[in-house]
Amino acid sequence: MLERVAEIQTQAKAEISAASSSAALEELRVKYLGRKAELPQLLRDVAGLPPQQRGEAGRSANEARQTLEALIEAAAARFEAAEMAAALSEDDVDITLPGSPVEAVGHHHLLSATRREIEDVFCGLGYSVVEGPEVETVQYNFDSLNHDPAHPARARSDTFYIEGGGEGPDQTLLRTHTSPMQIRIMEETPPPIALIVPGRVFRRDSDATHTPQFHQIEGLLVDEGVTLADLKGTLLAFARAIFGADRELRLRPHFFPFTEPSVEVDVSCFMCDQGTAPGGERCSLCKGTGWLEVLGSGMVDPNVFAAVSEHGYDPDTHQGFAFGLGIERIAMLKHGVPDLRFFYENDLRFLRQFG
Q1: How high is the pLDDT of residue 165?
Q2: Domain residue spans in the chain?
Q3: N or C end of the chain: smaller count of CB under 10 Å?
Q4: Is 110-354 assigned to CATH 1.20.1200.10?
């Protein structure tokens, strides 16, 4: 058997070297390595040899098979490159032209479309759109926004700090919210102001409802005589523009460091009737409560105005409200997206549903 394996290997090498095309090479692959070829049959026959001969015979046949497979693979790669080059040089088709049928023009990603929709609503209410830096300092991200020195959001387990980014108030980090622009804008612009701040933010979270990077829109309005009723009216107009004209709002007490009082805002569910879906089943979207949590908000804390008092903001004269909403959260609620990670997987089967 050993002699025959060597003869097959020598003959196959010569024929593979002499092959002139990929088609000829495929014939040789079938001839020497196909199911009915002699070399694979010899491998199957090893089991019938005397025990003292099996080891060497099996090793020899396996080595020959592996050698031929490698030679054929290398030759196939050469033929593929050469045949492609020849086809391109002889073909009159302009391969830079669009395919046929022409691929449809793309559309905005669902998050971009949702962001623009929200911006349009607030621009219609008289708000300006501004953007800010994604790399912030502790001073703007926490200190000036009235975060307690022991606030858990400051921990490295919650926030991405920049290595070598300094210490103390000037230490740099990836912003955890778009709220630092409240301070930056008030430092540059005297009251009254009305603005929204869309952008990316970063936190150490990753699961079906959290990602390390996500998108927020911060809202801020400051003037004299602003009340919580103004906040509710603004957010009601927003909710009805996004979720439907019949929506109602519910405000629940909460706590945020930079607002006092603070409220969580729920919008009445647009998929059911007070928690009951069509057919009498419990609504799967609002879990039968009839309400959907959409954002956090509140009246600007006087301590925040005190941080920018030298820029014309008097805590005794000026009032304002702030709100923050997640663009992913709004998109998930409005379009029934079950997993936040779908937004970032670039699966066209998902994305094309929203074109």
Answers
A1: 84
A2: 2-90, 110-354
A3: C
A4: no
